[in-house]
């Protein structure tokens, strides 16, 4: 899909979003929904470098867990009803510490919920979000890359590699961990290198998952398993036809097997060895690290690796510019919070814009310092807390120093003995604001 606009003077828009993956696409759809209720509609542009196929870096073979709070927000934005059929509900989460006695569970039922969250495959989500964007009022530039940026007093001028130019009042950087907008504007990030690499793959076990997700802290790093739909699980990796997919799915169900999305954090050399190990060696190592709680691991799909760093902008704003999602902060996938936090950036920005439009009866400068700083203030506490908690989790649970080991085991056990204590943990896991 390409919408190309060639003209001598830059095309004027109110908001330009650079990056159309999870954060940028949901923001664009949220803005289009808001715009539909206004007497003067917003002029929204979205610039995305890749078409939504299985080579798209933001909509790759990864599966992610979308927390209960995020499902609520996506429903409010009218997006979840379009994605719902892709979701596998997580009804229970089991957290354990390998080789130690600490373990705990989070369960949906006692909290009065059907599910703690939903697992979705990003490839599938990407094509639906892009379909929705083409039907919306958003001007989509795709495939198109921002190749130059010029800050002006009343906005930014963006030059795209298709020759078009845009002038926007407010620039939103949703262009991921290596944000080019951040580089053009000379902004930097704070970095924490965890000296870990995550291996991500779809794995099959010989027992039904029954909607359990698992988080296991091992000596080398955390390991997470998310339950997946059998049928969708095959599609990204095996590229089978839909008939074959259905047959594969039916076979799995008949055999009582199930599919999980695995994220396994390891020291980089070990991750490299296991990524390249033959299938049986990999499955044996996984079985050893995880134990037998989900039965036997019987198959593994394509293995992909991601270096794990935490990087964040202390102040995710600039003159007439805000940063959302991975462009503002890139988290360790340990707690499955990256998109959940990114979505809270998106919702925070939408709330600020909606209030500003309501207060000024539509005559608002969307890139004003007021709006940019209101966004910063709205996001400060949640970002700080989430970043601190994740760094604590990664460091605390990768450490063999005995007081910490004892502390974390007692901590996990206490949580399972004292259900009321679980509520704040559940609140974080489920992304309730
Ligand atoms: C292994 C793993 C597991 C994870 N599990 C979870 C989970 O369970 N739950 C969860 O909430 N999160 C999870 N995450 C995090 C989540 O996947 C990310 O936070 C989220 O997908 C980031 O989306 P984004 O839109 O902010 O950035 P990105 O996905 O990085 O998208 C940036 C987009 O910008 C585009 N772009 C870049 N430069 C330009 C340019 N110059 N011009 C135009 N476009 C450009 C790119 O093409 C890309 O589409 C996980 C991450 C990993 C690695």
TrEMBL record:
The keyword Electron transport does not apply. Residues 13-353 form the FAD-binding domain. One of its GO terms (molecular function) is 2-octaprenyl-6-methoxyphenol hydroxylase activity. InterPro entries: FAD-bd, FAD/NAD-bd_sf, Ubi_Hdrlase_CS, UbiH/COQ6_monooxygenase. SUPFAM superfamilies: FAD/NAD(P)-binding domain (SSF51905). The chain crosses the membrane at residues 12-34. Gene3D superfamilies: FAD/NAD(P)-binding domain. Pfam families: FAD_binding_3. The keyword Flavoprotein does not apply. Keywords: Membrane, Transmembrane, Transmembrane helix, Ubiquinone. PANTHER family: 2-OCTAPRENYL-6-METHOXYPHENOL HYDROXYLASE, UBIQUINONE BIOSYNTHESIS MONOOXYGENASE COQ6, MITOCHONDRIAL. This is UbiH/UbiF/VisC/COQ6 family ubiquinone biosynthesis hydroxylase. It comes from Shewanella algicola.
């Amino acid at each position: 899909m390409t919408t190309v606009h060639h003209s001598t003077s830059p095309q004027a828009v109110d908001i330009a979003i650079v990056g159309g993956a999870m954060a940028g696409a949901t923001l664009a759809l949220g803005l289009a929904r808001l715009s539909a209720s206004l007497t003067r509609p917003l002029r929204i542009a979205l610039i995305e470098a890749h078409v939504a196929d299985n080579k798209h870096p933001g909509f790759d073979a990864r599966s992610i867990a979308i927390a209960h709070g995020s499902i609520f927000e996506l429903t409010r934005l009218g997006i979840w009803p379009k994605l719902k059929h892709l979701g596998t509900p997580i009804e229970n989460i089991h957290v354990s510490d390998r080789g130690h006695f600490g373990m705990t569970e989070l369960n949906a039922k006692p909290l009065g919920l059907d599910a703690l969250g939903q697992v979705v495959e990003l490839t599938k989500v990407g094509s639906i979000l892009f379909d929705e964007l083409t039907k919306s009022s958003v001007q989509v530039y795709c495939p198109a890359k921002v190749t130059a940026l010029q800050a002006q007093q009343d906005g930014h001028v963006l030059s795209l590699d298709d020759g078009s130019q845009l002038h926007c009042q407010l620039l939103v950087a949703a262009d991921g961990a290596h944000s080019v907008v951040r580089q053009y504007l000379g902004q930097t990030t704070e970095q924490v290198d965890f000296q870990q690499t995550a291996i991500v793959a779809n794995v099959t076990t010989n027992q039904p998952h029954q909607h359990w997700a698992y988080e296991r802290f091992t000596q080398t790093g955390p390991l997470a398993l998310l339950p997946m739909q059998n049928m969708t699980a095959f599609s990204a990796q095996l590229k089978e036809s839909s008939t074959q997919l259905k047959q594969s799915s039916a076979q799995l169900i008949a055999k009582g097997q199930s599919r999980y999305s695995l994220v396994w954090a390891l020291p980089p050399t070990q991750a490299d060895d296991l990524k390249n190990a033959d299938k049986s060696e990999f499955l044996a190592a996984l079985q050893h690290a995880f134990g037998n709680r989900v039965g036997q691991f019987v198959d593994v799909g394509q293995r992909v690796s991601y270096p794990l760093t935490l990087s964040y902008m202390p102040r995710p704003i600039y003159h007439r510019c805000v940063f959302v999602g991975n462009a503002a902060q890139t988290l360790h996938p340990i707690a499955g919070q990256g998109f959940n936090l990114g979505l809270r950036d998106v919702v925070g920005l939408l709330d600020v814009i909606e209030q500003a439009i309501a207060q000024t009866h539509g005559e608002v400068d969307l890139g004003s310092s007021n709006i940019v700083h209101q966004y910063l203030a709205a996001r400060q506490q949640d970002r700080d807390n989430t970043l601190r908690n994740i760094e604590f989790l990664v460091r605390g649970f990768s450490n063999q120093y005995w007081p910490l080991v004892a502390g974390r085991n007692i901590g996990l056990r206490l949580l399972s003995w004292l259900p009321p204590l679980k509520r704040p943990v559940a609140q974080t896991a489920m992304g309730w604001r």
